[in-house]
Each structure stands twice: as structure tokens, then as C-alpha cells.
């Protein structure tokens, strides 16, 4: 019952990765273009390949998919097909985290890369009704050279769909403050700051993300639960957390779902949004994450609609677009509750 409500609910997603969104269907299309790839073509074998086993296996799958994105046409296909999977889930708006550095380093020219994602974005909006915006993120493990390059692509080249600047990859051994100059450069041209922080390290990383990188939202922010002063700060300054429950279990950032700090965030008045991170690779999708959150927070339909409204409010849409999407959510809830 709640599942069918969620399935039809208009939603926005704020924390979801580009390559990490390649579903088995999309991977099959990509590997058909590159028959030398080790990724199995047979649908059953592909499904098995995609079944999440552990974090090391997730990295294997992720890298295999990275290897399938070799030219601008792969980028365009991947991006458009992600939007198709989103449309099926009634996702109306998504801020997709894209890592241009990985593709450019692999030989796709920066201009062709940007053209490919923009072409997919415009087509997806027109043909599928899914509005996409980009967050270009620094792959932290690739160091300052990747930060320099990501800032150059974001700021010196840029593109119409780009709204924010991020930082992903491992947190341990990758202190946030070293990326300050690149975030400064991005923020100076109006890009919003949305680094990952506090997923696998403690609350200090989240403080660093706020104070050094000017974070307006926090990717994950899981360890905020260990610092009451930080929770208070996030609530007072209305800094939303991009919570991805299943991902946190898969990566072992959280041991068991029942221990997920989502309930503590809500109790502390911190704005939360629900997201899927790398959905097919963690065996999930946004609808499943909403169902998980509803269970953790003990929500009914109205409560779940509230989560959808939170995501719109925390998005970088303009006020008019926010109002329209919020009205669509409210209308859907009203039509659901007035059913005979
Ligand atoms: Zn992420």
C-alpha cells in the first residue's frame, strides 16, 4: 500500500552518482557497444554480476562500468538512460553527481563530454519529463590534480545544467580543508557547495566541510549523530543532510539499518533528504529508499510526502520550480487520501 503510494509520488533526488546509476539494462547497452569488455552480456550472468556481495565487489562492478564509458556517445547514452530509469520512478528532478575528471583522464575531450551530458539533459527533459542538473565532483582519491582539473572544467568551461560542486571518494586520509581553494573558485562563480562528509569519518569532517568548503548540504553526514552541537548547528542553519540508508549499510558506514541515525537527525530538527547514491550497485532505487526511511521513521503517506517536499526544498531549483513541484506532491497526496 505505502509502496504503491511511493511508486506514484513525484520525487526529487539530490545525491545520486552518474556512473553509479548504470543499471544492468544500461550496462548491457554499453557493453554491446564494446564487445571486448569483461562485463557479461547474458542477462542472467549480468544480473549475478550486479548482485551486491561486499564493498570490494561493488568497486569491481563500478570500475567495470567506468571502463565501458569510453567515448562521448557512451556518456550521452548512459546519461539519457539514467533519466529513463528515473522517469519510471516518478523522479521529476535530479541533481546528478558527475565526475568529469574520470572521463577526461580516460581520453574523452572535455568539450565533447560536456556536450554529451548537456545533449542528454535537454532530451531527457523534453522527452521524459525529467529535469536534470549537475554536481561536478572531485574524486578525492585522485588528489589535488583532480581538484584542479574539476574546478577548471566546472568554472572555466562550465555548462548550462551545472549547479553545484562536490567532493567524493574516500574520506580517510583525504582531509577536506586541502580542497578549499577549488571550492572557493567554484563558489565565486555561483556554484553551490555539496561535499560528501562524515560518511566514513567522524563529525570533524562535517565541520571542515561547513567551515572550509562552505557546504550548503552534506553528502551523507552520517557521523553528525555523534556530535550534539553539530546537530544543533545543522538544524539552526538549515543545512540538509543527503541521507542514503542502503548505501550506508552496503559500505558499512552503519552496521545495521535499525541503528541508522536518520531518526536522530529528524528528532534534532535537522533537514533530511532521502537518496539512493549508487542505486543498482547497492541493489536499490529511490522508491526502495523511501520505503526504508518510512519504516525507520514510522511514516504514513503524509509523512512520506513530507520527505519528498524536503528534497524539493533542499534542491537548487529556483523558487517557481520548487513551488510547482511541491504543489504536484501536495496534489498527489490529496488525490490519494480522497480515494474512495
Ligand atoms: Zn555519494
Short overview:
Helices cover 53% and strands 13% of the residues.
Provide structural commentary.
With 340 residues, this protein is an alpha/beta fold. The chain has one domain (2-337): Metal-dependent hydrolases (TIM Barrel). It is 53% helix and 13% strand. The strands form two sheets. It has a five-stranded parallel β-sheet. Strands 6-7-8-9 form a four-stranded parallel β-sheet. Strand 4, helix 9 and strand 5 form a beta-alpha-beta unit. Helix 2 packs antiparallel against helix 5 (72-88), helix 8 (143-157) packs parallel to helix 9 (180-188) and helix 15 packs antiparallel against helix 16. It is globular. The protein starts with a helix and ends with a helix. The mean pLDDT is 95. The structure holds zinc ion. It holds the Pfam family A_deaminase. GO terms for molecular function: deaminase activity; hydrolase activity, acting on carbon-nitrogen (but not peptide) bonds, in cyclic amidines; metal ion binding. Residues 10-331 form the Adenosine deaminase domain. It comes from Streptomyces smaragdinus.
Amino acid at each position: 500500500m505505502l509502496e504503491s503510494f511511493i511508486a506514484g509520488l513525484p520525487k526529487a533526488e539530490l545525491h545520486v552518482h552518474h556512473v553509479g546509476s548504470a543499471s544492468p539494462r544500461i550496462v548491457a547497452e554499453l557493453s554491446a557497444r564494446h564487445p571486448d569488455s569483461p562485463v557479461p552480456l547474458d542477462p542472467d550472468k549480468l544480473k549475478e554480476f550486479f548482485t551486491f556481495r561486499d564493498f570490494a565487489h561493488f568497486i569491481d562492478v563500478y570500475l567495470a562500468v567506468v571502463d565501458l564509458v569510453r567515448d562521448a556517445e557512451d556518456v550521452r547514452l548512459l546519461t539519457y538512460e539514467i533519466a529513463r530509469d528515473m522517469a519510471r520512478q516518478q523522479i521529476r528532478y535530479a541533481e546528478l553527481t558527475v565526475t568529469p575528471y574520470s572521463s577526461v583522464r580516460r581520453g574523452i575531450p572535455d568539450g565533447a563530454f560536456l556536450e554529451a551530458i548537456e545533449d542528454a539533459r535537454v532530451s531527457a527533459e523534453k522527452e521524459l519529463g525529467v529535469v536534470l542538473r549537475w554536481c561536478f565532483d572531485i574524486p578525492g582519491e585522485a588528489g589535488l590534480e583532480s581538484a584542479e582539473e574539476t574546478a577548471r572544467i566546472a568554472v572555466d568551461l562550465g555548462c548550462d545544467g551545472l549547479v553545484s560542486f562536490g567532493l567524493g571518494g574516500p574520506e580517510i586520509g583525504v582531509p577536506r580543508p586541502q580542497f578549499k581553494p577549488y571550492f572557493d573558485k567554484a563558489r565565486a562563480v555561483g556554484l553551490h557547495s555539496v561535499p560528501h562528509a562524515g560518511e566514513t569519518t567522524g563529525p570533524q569532517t562535517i565541520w571542515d566541510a561547513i567551515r572550509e568548503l562552505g557546504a550548503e548540504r552534506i553528502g551523507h553526514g552520517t557521523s553528525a549523530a555523534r556530535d550534539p552541537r553539530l546537530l544543533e548547528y545543522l538544524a539552526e542553519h538549515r543545512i540538509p543532510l543527503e541521507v542514503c540508508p542502503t548505501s550506508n549499510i552496503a559500505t558499512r558506514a552503519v552496521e545495521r539499518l535499525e541503528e541508522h541515525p536518520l531518526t536522530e537527525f529528524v528528532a534534532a530538527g535537522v533537514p533530511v533528504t532521502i537518496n539512493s547514491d549508487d542505486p543498482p550497485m547497492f541493489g536499490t532505487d529511490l522508491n526502495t529508499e523511501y520505503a526504508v526511511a518510512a519504516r525507520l521513521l514510522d511514516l504514513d503517506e503524509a509523512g512520506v510526502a513530507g520527505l519528498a517536499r524536503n528534497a524539493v526544498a533542499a534542491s537548487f531549483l529556483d523558487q517557481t520550480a520548487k513551488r510547482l513541484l511541491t504543489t504536484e506532491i501536495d496534489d498527489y497526496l490529496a488525490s490519494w487520501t480522497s480515494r474512495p
